[in-house]
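Before relying on records like the one below, remember that each one covers exactly one chain. Contacts with other chains, cofactors or solvent are not represented anywhere in the record.
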Amino acid sequence: MAVRIRLARKGRKKQAFYHIVVTDSRSPRDGRYIEKIGTYNPLTNPVAIELDFEKALGWLQNGALPSDTCRAILSYKGVLMKKHLLEGVKKGAFDEAEASRRFEEWMKQKEAKIELKRSGLEKSKDDEIMKKLAAEKKINEDRAAKLAKKQAELAAKAEAAAQPEAQPEAQDAEPVEDQVAEPPAEAQATESAETQVTEPAVEETNAPVEDKQDQQASEEVKPQE
């Protein structure tokens, strides 16, 4: 029987959550398994992995073959590194104390990398939050400026609407003075008529005088003949 270390899918749709299990290679993916040795949640950053280190190492030493994803998980948690060092002890390359020292040094470097990544993610989150706050502040300022501008326009329109109400009163008062100062049209018409009547009278009175002078001049000329 070929034994494999692989993932069994759990969780809801679009929210996958996996169990790390040891199972027969012929069983279905989410079917029965021999033993559960951990969990894997890929939705977090960094990913959340819980693993029984000793059980996973024991199954690897007994010949269990991990899937590609499980191999990456075991490498991330240091199980493959521990297995490699124990094989070096069996071959006599170094003793167990040296293997433990190398493994602890490797784990410190790994933890430092993980912590650096976690701090970088936290810093990026803080920067993103600050950017969002700055953008929201700018939006609020723009809204306040637009509101102030709109209120100023409404106030100007109200003032413009109030001014024409006072102007007609002044315009109505002006024609009264003009009517009092100017004479009525009927009086002007009568004056022009009187002038037209009196002028012909003067011409008529002058006409007989000229006729009398002509008669006298003719009488004076006759005796000389």
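The helical segments are 53-61, 68-77, 79-91, 96-181, 185-221.
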